[in-house]
């Protein structure tokens, strides 16, 4: 079995139904199967079995077909972000050494051919090339233990962390996903973000594997997305918190009203606020909210469903088929409520790194940790404390920025926050917070200080809090911490006094 095996099955059983809708451009199951097979055979003829295929394109119909075709051919699709700086793109391509690169422009890679693809062309234009093999035979399905995808973490310099996924790991995710969400051929699945983010690539391939119609956009625009949800009768939405905040703001401006067809609103990447959840329930009255915690290497780890009795501040219980353990520094199991390294055991985890991250995981027998710190309660709900690599040491005490950020984000005037450590001769590091405010008027220190003191130990209190007018985000919708540090260094902020 492979992640693309379902394409031919649904092309046979529901050939004339819509498989993919890219804004107003649609493709039936029959035509999708034909198109993917044509490109897969062309890749098979030009790329060695042990080489990958780099795809460096923005969201577009060609990107969708190429990712599926590379997986169908038994090669790994190395999905790069075309918005990376050129030097980082070149370094990454050298590290993964593809046999072929598809891009919107020639990349001048020594020894690696680049086939230029126009991202503006639709499915009809793609159907013109390349030709089938002369005998027209279909390729054999790749084995399930073959790597089909290399995803990359975002970054601004150097070689990003590239992680490999096998067909088997995602097929196991699909099995667990079916139990958790029950996505079927009757659903219409919307991926709000780019395929360079693994969540949205997963939404695409998961939807197709279930026989659902998958809806995508060239770029996310909140007002257009709301209209698309209505027009396409979307039932399942995948997004990150930034997408949903923008959708809610657009719905308020447009006086959108309720959208009853949606039955799942799924989110990953960061936690929602209580206000976000309440407004989403109002906008999608028949939808259940599902929030994932996971990592690129681990896939889904926990799930918090709105229908389940999830404790406040918990990221949920273990996802179907996942085992979670908390280890002390000496490697021994930690009792309930004692923080330690989160270790995960499941069939959903990655195969290994393609580049940029040797030694980035810890292993304990057949369990893996990516360095996140957390604890389990008596009912085995997981709580995140922070990441080991973000931990600050101030006056000899450990501070996890995520804990301080959670307190700041709970203030009604603050939309987002980021906590960093600044070198301090006396303390080692000083805790500094930067915030984005809901309205233009930021709270004063006199208002914010007492709010934090009620919720934080004195040594965890930020020494300074500053407001930013423009909040930096990565392409995946998370806070860009490197950019935050640069803004602090350049004094591009306003201190709250």
What does this structure look like?
The structure is a single chain. The protein is about 30% helix and about 25% strand. With about 500 residues, it is of the alpha/beta class. The chain folds into three domains: about 5-220, ANL, N-terminal domain (Rossmann fold); about 285-390, Luciferase, domain 3, CATH 2.30.38.10; about 390-495, GMP Synthetase, Chain A, domain 3 (2-Layer Sandwich). The strands form six sheets. It has a nine-stranded mixed β-sheet with strand order 2-1-10-9-11-12-13-14-15, sandwiched between helices. The protein has a seven-stranded mixed β-sheet with strand order 6-5-3-4-7-8-18. Strands 16-17-21-22 form a four-stranded antiparallel β-sheet. Helix 1 (about 5-15) runs antiparallel to helix 2. The longest helix has 18 residues, at about 30-45. The mean pLDDT is about 90.
Helix content bin: 25-40%
CATH architecture of the largest domain: 3-Layer(aba) Sandwich
Low-confidence stretches: none
Spatial strand arrangement across the major sheet: 2-1-10-9-11-12-13-14-15
Q: What characteristic shape results from the CA principal axes?
A: globular
The span between the termini is: 61 Å
Radius of gyration: 23 Å
Structural class: alpha/beta
Broad CATH class of the largest domain: Alpha Beta
SS field, number of helical segments: 13
CATH superfamily of the largest domain: ANL, N-terminal domain
CATH fold descriptor of the largest domain? Rossmann fold
Task: Compute the average pLDDT.
Answer: 90
List the domain count as a whole number.
3
Strand content: 25-35%
| Major sheet size, sense and barrel closure | 9 strands, mixed
Number of strands: 28
């Amino acid at each position: 079995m492979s992640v693309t095996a379902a394409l031919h099955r649904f092309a046979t059983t529901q050939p004339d139904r819509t498989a993919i809708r890219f804004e107003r451009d649609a493709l039936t199951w029959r035509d999708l199967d034909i198109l993917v097979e044509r490109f897969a055979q062309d890749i098979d003829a030009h790329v060695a079995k042990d080489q990958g295929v780099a795809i460096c394109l923005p969201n577009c119909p060609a990107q969708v077909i190429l990712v599926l075709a590379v997986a169908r051919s038994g090669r790994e699709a190395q999905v790069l972000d075309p918005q990376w700086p050129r030097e980082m793109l070149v370094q990454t391509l050298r590290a993964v050494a593809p046999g072929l690169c598809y891009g919107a422009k020639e990349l001048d890679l020594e020894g690696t051919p680049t086939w230029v693809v126009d991202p503006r062309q639709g499915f009809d234009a793609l159907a013109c090339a390349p030709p089938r093999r002369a005998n027209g035979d279909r390729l054999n399905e790749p084995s399930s233990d073959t790597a089909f995808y290399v995803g990359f973490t975002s970054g601004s310099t150097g070689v990003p962390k590239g992680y490999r996924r096998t067909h088997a790991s995602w097929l196991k995710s699909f099995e667990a996903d079916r139990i958790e969400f029950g996505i079927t051929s009757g659903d219409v699945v919307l991926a709000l973000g780019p395929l360079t983010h693994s969540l949205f690539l997963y939404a695409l391939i998961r939807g197709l594997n279930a026989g659902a119609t998958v809806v995508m956009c060239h770029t996310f625009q909140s007002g257009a997305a709301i209209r698309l949800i209505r027009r396409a009768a979307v039932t399942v939405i995948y997004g990150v918190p930034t997408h949903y905040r923008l959708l809610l703001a657009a719905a308020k401006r447009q006086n959108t009203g309720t959208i009853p067809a949606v039955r799942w609103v799924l989110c990953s990447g960061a936690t929602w606020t209580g206000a976000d959840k309440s407004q989403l329930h109002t906008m999608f009255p028949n939808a259940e909210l599902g929030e994932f915690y996971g990592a690129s290497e681990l896939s889904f780890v926990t799930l918090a469903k709105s229908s389940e009795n999830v404790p406040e501040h918990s990221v949920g219980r273990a996802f179907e088929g996942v085992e979670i353990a908390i280890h002390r520094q000496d490697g021994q199991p930690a009792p309930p409520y004692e923080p330690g390294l989160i270790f995960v055991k499941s069939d959903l985890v990655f195969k290994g790194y393609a580049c940029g991250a040797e030694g980035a995981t810890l292993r304990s027998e057949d369990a893996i940790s990516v360095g996140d710190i957390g604890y389990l309660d008596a009912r085995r709900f997981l709580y995140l404390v922070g990441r080991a690599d973000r931990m600050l040491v101030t006056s000899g005490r450990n501070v996890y920025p995520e804990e301080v950020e959670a307190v700041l984000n709970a203030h009604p005037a603050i939309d987002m926050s980021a906590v960093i450590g600044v070198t301090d001769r006396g303390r080692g590091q000083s805790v500094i917070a930067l915030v984005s405010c809901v309205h233009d008027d930021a709270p004063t220190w006199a208002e914010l200080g007492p709010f934090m003191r009620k919720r934080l130990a004195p040594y965890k209190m930020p020494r300074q809090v500053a407001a930013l007018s423009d909040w930096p985000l990565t392409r995946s919708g998370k806070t860009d911490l490197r950019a935050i540090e640069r803004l602090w260094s350049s004094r591009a902020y306003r201190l709250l006094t």
